[in-house]
Amino acid sequence: MAFRLLADAVVAVHALFVAYVVAGGLLALRWRRAALVHLPCAVYGALVVLVGWTCPLTPLENRLRRAAGEAGYEGGFIEHHLLPILYPDPYPGWLGWALGAAVAAVNAVVYALVLARGRRTERG
Questions:
Q1: Which residue in 22, 23, 33, 41 sits closest to 99, CA to CA?
Q2: Helices and strands: H and E segment counts in the chain
Q3: At what angle do helices 35-51 and 95-123 cross, to 10 degrees?
Q4: What is the DSSP secondary structure assignment for residue 90, as one 8-state letter?
Q5: What is the average pLDDT across 43-72?
């Protein structure tokens, strides 16, 4: 039971990290120093999707699930937990690239606004 709860906690942390990667740049609109933490997370998150890296939280969750007597899963967190909700099986192979590009685009717009706001503040 404890291993299952730990695995579920890893899923929750993973989901929060994904949400932070996607929308955490909005914090930098309010607190510019938030970018110091968010930018590396956003770059890492985009690379995980674009390059096909495995986030270390995925194998951790799988180990905990197996320790709880459950089956792990193949692939990554996004493919296993999020894509089935957003896109029923089968989903096209290009979808990972599209999601990575969308994350990069959203964050590029947010940080363009952060930079523009910073320049405006410095001038006036």
A1: 22
A2: 7, 0
A3: 160
A4: S
A5: 85
Secondary structure (3-state) at 64: helix
Which of 13-17, 56-60, 81-85 is predicted with the least confidence, judged by mean pLDDT? 81-85
The C-alpha atoms of residue 70 and residue 97 are separated, in whole angstroms, by 30
Structure tokens at 24: 């955490």
CA distance 4 to 18: 21
CA distance 98 to 116: 27
Phi first, then psi: give them for residue 52, nearest 5 degrees: 90, 20
What per-residue string of b and e applies to 15-48 under the rule 16 or more CB within 10 Å gives b?
A: eebbebbbebbebbeeeeebbeebeeebeebbeb
Asked if 61 and 77 count as a contact pair (C-beta separation under 8 A), the reply is yes
Residue 85: how many CB atoms within 10 A of its CB?
Answer: 7
For 49, counting Cβ atoms within 10 Å of its Cβ (0-12 exposed, 13-18 middle, 19+ buried), the class is buried
